[in-house]
């Protein structure tokens, strides 16, 4: 048996070891940024190491070298040009080269074009790319309330991949119910990464980022007809808020003064940008992506036969501003913000 003196020595050794660990390593420094009215506690906390990793993940590709004007429109030089028809033909070629780098750097031009017949509309990828180009122009021209002067390019979402990393589909029949007692058809009680691993409804996107279901929380009174929303609708709203928090790498106080969550007067300007962003995503899903459902092959559709759709994470990917607020549009103003 271990003697009493030995046991004491072991305990002392353990305590000394713990003391060395805590005094040697300590806690990382914390940066605090106030983003709301003074005295509201609307601050965002960040760690230098995490910021360094975020910067490394948001490095912009070099812009394509500027082109000398040819003096001819793209539609006069190339066949079957349906977007950017009035763009100078050399600038048109420059934009095509940039899009290849942004979306399919490994596959090259052949990802969207039929080999030997660039004018052909046979590849479904070309039909999709044409529509996505129109969507990008729409975003830069008509949604400045959300994207501001920074704007977006194909790279904002794709990051050099043919399919953006952050997309969503309607849940499969198997995932609509939790695998244990108490599961609900909306996926609640089955913790999902889409809502920060909470047990909130796992797919708030169909209601709020495709449909226009009001984003509301519980009523102010116990009466069923009081202002606000049902408990179930409240939980769906919180599921969307968890997604937005995770997608932007922020907490609730980025948009809300937590002592007055509903009050626009006591909240910061970021909440207004988020309001526009939600409506922007709804429009893009409804007007651009869903109509492309029949264009995609079955292998690119979800379990329910629906097309891939976007949410806040598609552009933001963990940053409060996509690509940390760096603008790529300034190098392609004539084509992406005509």
Task: Explain this structure.
The chain is mainly alpha-helical and 338 residues long. It folds into 2 domains: 59-165 and 319-338, Orthogonal Bundle (Photosynthetic Reaction Center, subunit C, domain 2), CATH 1.10.468; 167-316, Photosynthetic Reaction Center, subunit C, domain 2. Helix content is 39%, strand content 2%. The chain contains 12 helices and 2 strands; from the N terminus they run H-E-E-H-H-H-H-H-H-H-H-H-H-H. Strand 1 and strand 2 form a beta hairpin. Residues 177-181 have low confidence and may be disordered.
Placed side by side, the strands forming the largest sheet appear as 1-2
Bulk shape: globular
| Number of beta-strand segments | 2
- Examine the coordinates and then state which fold CATH places here, giving the name of the CATH topology of the largest domain: Photosynthetic Reaction Center, subunit C, domain 2
Helix content: 25-40%
Strand percentage: under 5%
Helices, by number, come to: 12
Query: What is the structural class?
Result: mainly alpha
The profile of the biggest β sheet is: 2 strands, antiparallel
Nearest-angstrom radius of gyration? 25 Å
Distance between the termini: 84 Å
The averaged pLDDT comes out at 87
**CATH homology superfamily name of the largest domain:** Photosynthetic Reaction Center, subunit C, domain 2
